[in-house]
Amino acid sequence: MQKTIERIAGDSEGTTYEFPVFRFDGTDKAAPTAYLQAALHAGELPGVVAIDALMPMLAKAEAEGRIKGAVTVVPWANPIGRAQYHFGEHQGRFHLGTRTNFNRAFPLLAAPDLKLLPDTSLGGADQRLKSRLVELSLGHDIVLDLHCDDEGLSYLYIHTSLWPAMADCAAAMRADAVVLWSEDTDGTFEGASIMPYQNVPVSVARFGRRVVTTVEYRGMLDVDGALAASDAAGLYRLLVARGVVQDPSIPKPSSFTGVVVPLENIDMTPSPRAGAILYDVKPGDRVAKGDRLATIVHTPGEIDGRTEVFAPQSGFILTRRSRRIIRAGEDLLKLAGDKRSGDARSGTLED
Description:
Elements: E1 2-9, E2 16-24, E3 34-38, H1 46-63, E4 71-74, H2 79-82, E5 85-86, E6 89-90, H3 125-137, E7 142-149, E8 151-152, E9 154-159, H4 167-173, E10 177-181, H5 189-194, H6 202-205, E11 211-219, H7 225-241, E12 259-262, E13 266-267, E14 275-279, E15 286-287, E16 292-297, E17 306-310, E18 315-320, E19 325-326, E20 333-337
Parallel strand pairs: 3-4, 3-7, 7-11, 9-10, 10-12
Antiparallel strand pairs: 1-2, 2-4, 5-6, 8-18, 9-11, 13-20, 14-16, 14-19, 15-18, 16-17, 18-20
Helix pairs in contact: 1-7, 4-7
Pfam families: AstE_AspA_cat
Organism: Mesorhizobium album
Protein name: Succinylglutamate desuccinylase/aspartoacylase family protein
């Protein structure tokens, strides 16, 4: 294993951001290669501890000569967001200088050619970071971006061009659900990883061996040793299943038994009032159209001080908010509906 330190110039003299990159060399140049990163949203830590649990497994495989394809690992992908605090509260989702989500505004290249990357020398530190992450990841057959939701199931975002070819990966990771998407106008990291292959020759795209996904490891508070070990085992099974790591003790993944839902079926369910949330449902619950999802207490103690929110269609609860205070118009939860949402959103579901 080799460790290097990446340095990103800040927006003023004397400011530099650093993050480590770990590389495991493969023994077979024809084998698939893999890139894993965590904490692009710097406060989302389940992926960080999963990588921590995975690293000894990769080190053992390397020592035994079982890493066939090169593996690149970035456990802390966002040193800028990691350093951001406002009045004592960590702020890792948006760059405070530009107000841009750290998982937006990645360059969407027309082809997998690093020469097409824009010049960021006069841009901000966040754009330099995003450009460097694309440089580190582009060209790998497997690209995994590890995130988490507020409170939720374990699920994957997968581009329609990779489904159902990636069903074995979803099974290996034992995801509860898969959300399929087809359009990226906001420049997510996943989009920057798959869109360059959409209009190139089949021999370059190689969709049969390509794996690109945003992994949502449940919720913000699911930072736990047992969960980290389980998630690391899932990552390892995926690498074995796709031929990056050789390990005859790991059986082939069984069929994926989770739910597959188009992104357009997701109902985000905005709150009609500001106040305190009393949830009637939790992630994984099945609901019918008209079932009560939550009650908003907006004027406590007063007549008509509560407003109920009902399911716009049948489906299951994918996620909900971890905090119980909400403003009018903010999303209460993700309802994975049986049908297309009446408020269907293409691209990203939230800011």
